[in-house]
Amino acid sequence: MGCTRTRDRSRPIWEVLLSAGVVPISTEPAELSAAFESALRAFFASRRELVDPVGGDFAAAVRHLEEFVLRGGKRIRPAFAWTGWLGAGGDPAADPVNASGVLQVCAALELVQACALIHDDIIDSSHTRRGFPTVHVTFTDRHTSHGWSGEAAQFGSAAAILLGDLALAWADDMVREAKLDPAAVARLAPVWSAMRTEVLGGQFLDIAGEASGDESVEAALRINRYKTASYTIERPLHIGALLADADASLIEAYRTFGTDIGIAFQLRDDLLGVFGDPSITGKPSGDDLREGKRTVLYAVALQRADASAPGAAQRLRDGIGTDLSDAAVDDIRRTLIDLGAVDDVEHRIGTLTARALTALDSSSATPQVKDRLRAMALAATARNS
């Protein structure tokens, strides 16, 4: 249910929600997303006094970063963190000042996400993100249009790397400036640090796996665990629980749920990267094949082809990571289906989701939040997600 009071348009929506004693998780998802975006807009506004004196084109570059962060996205990570806080007993009405600090920490996860996306797009040589040119492509085009010296593509990648780094640094700033009590800060610090290390470690595993040609299912699952599951669902829930000073048993249940749903979420994304509708994914269909991503889907297909269909295995190895035509992408899709790799990944998603929901059901999270987390998990792993 949404808030029925007339809202003062001069105040950020999250301030209105908190001062009214309304729990954002019980509102429409768009209201909760707006609360995070309001916190992000306020943070970006607070950085202008630092950015503007630098001069040159830096302020324009930072504005592009702000647009990138605020443009689209499902706000999955902050939503899981906020929900985890509520499920562990967090109450916005009881302590609005603390709640505003918690909301700011949750919103900061979007800056970690921005860093990961910007850097991933460079690594994968992606041209679009959410239906727009990727950051490195935007700055490549800017270099070209201005007639600057040097290699345009190199400039674009360098600029995007710096903006990704800035997003990660500002995520830390946003957390540090949140109004949290010292005990909450002490609980949060090691987990926030672990999350940053895990996502960067997962990115490294990804590029090392491609370079070394590691085709194993185990390697692909390890990348999913650290590159996606950790900072997408597991650690956000962990962070929310810690901010509410949850007990060890709830934290363990959250982490089990988060890891399994996070991996299932990535497996679904892997399927969408090959079979998805570009209007939903924001990227051309089949791009994961052209980019050479060593996904669980691909690893399972190779494992099965090596055992029973050597010709198909060779086609897969020859095709991935090349400039495939649409017809070649269709051929690989059929091969993945015929080998049973798609059914295998669907089965994994189902198994992981069922195990996650069992851990959630047996936890001490509040009943309302259990229902909400169940709905969020099913949405994240749905065939049309």
The top-level CATH class of the largest domain is: Mainly Alpha
Order of neighbouring strands in the sheet with most strands: 1-2
Write out the CATH superfamily name of the largest domain: Farnesyl Diphosphate Synthase
Content-based structural category: mainly alpha
Number of structurally distinct domains: 2
Mean of pLDDT: 90
- The helix/strand order is HHHHHEEHHHHHHHHHHHH
Keywords: Magnesium, Metal-binding, Transferase
Pathway: Isoprenoid biosynthesis
EC number: 2.5.1.-
Family: Belongs to the FPP/GGPP synthase family.
What are the main properties of this structure?
385 residues; mainly alpha; Farnesyl Diphosphate Synthase; 2 domains; two-stranded antiparallel ribbon; 17 helices; 2 strands; globular; EC 2.5.1.-; transferase; Polyprenyl_synt_CS; Polyprenyl synthetase family protein
Give an overview in words.
By secondary structure, the protein is mainly alpha-helical. It has helices at residues 13-19, 29-51, 58-70, 76-87, 96-123, 135-146, 152-176, 182-212, 217-243, 248-275, 278-281, 287-291, 296-308, 310-319, 326-338, 341-361, 367-380, and strands at residues 128-129, 132-133. Mean pLDDT is 90; it is low at 1-14 and 16-27. This is Polyprenyl synthetase family protein. Its EC number is 2.5.1.-.
